[in-house]
Amino acid sequence: MLSDALLLELRSLLPHCVSTDAATLLAASLDASDVQGACSAVVRVASEEDVVRLLRWAEERRVAIVPRGAATSATGAARPMPGSVALDLRGLNRILDLDARDMVAVVEPGVITATLQRAAEAEGLLYPPDPASAAECTLGGNVATCAGGLRAVKYGVTRDYVLGLRCVLPGGRILECGGRNLKDVTGYDLTRLLTGSEGTLAVFTRIVLKLVPLPPAHGTLLCSFADEDGAFTAADAILAAGLWPRALESMDEPAARLAAAGAGLELLPETRSQLLVELDGEATSVREAMERLRLLLGKTCLDCRDVSSGEAFAAVWQGRRGISRAARALAPAKHSEDIGVPRGKLALVVRQLKELGRAHGIPMLIYGHAGDANLHCNFLHDPGGEGADRRLDACVRGAWELVLSHGGTLTGEHGVGLRKRDELPRILGAERMRLMHAIKQAFDPGNIMNPGKVLRENQA
Ligand SMILES: Cc1cc2nc3c(=O)[nH]c(=O)nc-3n(C[C@H](O)[C@H](O)[C@H](O)COP(=O)(O)OP(=O)(O)OC[C@H]3O[C@@H](n4cnc5c(N)ncnc54)[C@H](O)[C@@H]3O)c2cc1C
Fold first, then answer.
1. 331-405 and 217-323 share a CATH fold
2. What are the pocket residues of ligand 1 if the criterion is a CB atom closer than 6 Å to any ligand atom?
3. Under DSSP, is residue 90 helix (H, G, I), strand (E, B) or coil?
4. What's the gap in Å between 138 CA and the centre of ligand 1?
5. Which residue's CA is the nearest one to ligand 1's atom 36?
């Protein structure tokens, strides 16, 4: 708990920004993970100067600060800890510049991702990173987690678009790194280091993002398969044929069922897996590629629907983006993992994960970015009944070991947060942990920035 004296100081330092009412504290204690936190105050800033004042005070008083965007983090990264101040950055939400000639956007961190996507498209440009949460998450949160998403197979992840950052460091110092140059190798790449730092090093107050030309056409196919591996075999065949979709999303049968319900579409009863494929480019090349896709997949799929336009397009993507929340409604205590494996191992690992689920009596729902071999593996946990939590724990640990044994990663895009923190030492090894602690110490010697996330305190 923050003392009354400290709260009084904070209020006089940042009048009109500080809330301590129960409803605001409760809302700020959550993110999209299944871990709940607590904080002593929420500071909703309206300018960079507010952030500077807050971080100067916080370092002097050794108060923990938890930066927050839209709190869609799936790892507990935006979850505050008792006695901390939740720093709400959603008020810094201006697009400061969108320059079609330089092909960059300069934004404040609270801009919603989809807002920038629409603004770029209006100028004939594309901001490619597209997390499934794009309608709600912020660009600050995307940079802090290095968000991936639906178009990463062709366009890469957030880090590939961050050209520059302006940040406030603990103590209120300003750090600027990178800028509008598309190429720049002056010194250590602090922009890349800060991208994915999960609020543990600095608060971003301004972000320079690269844009690319907006492809004039796109085409989308939704294909259903009668076997569980069908979607993966098809994804391999598409890439092997030299086609390069901007989205290549797989859904197992339970995920396809939820997506279809969200989209208001029928699912063929024989469906065991689905693949959502989207291509973009010039109109003629998209038409040709769609034809090649139909020929390629027509031999193996039950059904291949063109959902390129109109209501079907919007509905299919709404269904796909809604799977995570629909799964939560189905199994409120579900546990989700964000695994990545070398591409060639994807079908095998999914098969082995499903076997593991069956062995522990836990149904699985697996979907995600098949093109990047980064899938969201949902354990549909039912907490009632003898030993249910123990079974879940054993199953999750089994899944981690399985993924690691195939040379995979425990997080492809959601980040470490609290969820994976304790696994880092054995995965990264002593030398990398030593360097990571040294970096944390150099940026944040007082350990006020989102302490305990990514790195356990006193773990060095
Ligand atoms: C339905 C759903 C679908 C999702 N789909 C995807 C997906 O496809 N791909 C993907 O990668 N993720 C996905 N996510 C996870 C989540 O949306 C991303 O991690 C997103 O980048 C978080 O953005 P946010 O604004 O909600 O950040 P928050 O959750 O508020 O914060 C996330 C982290 O960023 C830090 N942070 C926030 N703002 C700043 C700032 N200005 N300066 C410094 N640190 C900051 C926080 O401290 C925290 O560590 C999904 C989540 C949900 C609920």
1. yes
2. 31-32, 66-74, 77-78, 89, 109, 131-133, 137-138, 140-142, 144-145, 147-149, 198-199, 203-204, 324-325, 413-414, 450
3. coil
4. 7
5. 141
For 420-460, CATH gives 1.10.45
Of the residues 133, 143, 157, 175, which should be mutated to test ligand 1's pocket, given the most ligand atoms within 8 Å of the CB? 133
Task: List the domain boundaries for the chain.
Answer: 4-88, 95-212, 217-323, 331-405, 420-460
pLDDT greater than 60 at residue 460:
no
The model's pTM is 0.97
Q: Cα of 374 to ligand 1 centre, how many Å?
A: 17
Distance between CA 99 and CA 101 in Å, rounded?
A: 6
pLDDT band at 34 (very low <50, low <70, confident <90, very high): confident
Query: What is the rounded CA–CA span in Å between residue 418 and residue 73?
Result: 11
Reference 291, options 256, 153, 283; nearest CA is: 283
Which residue has the CA at smallest separation from atom 49 of ligand 1?
Answer: 198
- Residue 303, strand partner residues: 224
Average pLDDT of span 201-217: 98
Distance CA 430, CA 442 (A): 18
- At a CB cut-off of 8 Å and minimum separation 6, what does 254 contact? 363, 364, 365, 380
